[in-house]
Amino acid sequence: MKLTKYTHACVRLDKDGKVLLIDPGSFSEDAVFEAADAILVTHEHPDHLDVERIKALDAPVYTNAGVAAQLTELGDRVQVVEDGQAFDAAGFAIRAYGKDHAIILPELGVPCQNVGFLVDDAVYHPGDSFTRPDRQVHTNLVPISGPWFALPAAVEYVRALPAQQTVGVHDVLLSPIGQGMMKRFLDDDSRPYLGLNPGDSLEIN
Question: What pTM does this model have?
Answer without folding.
Answer: 0.97
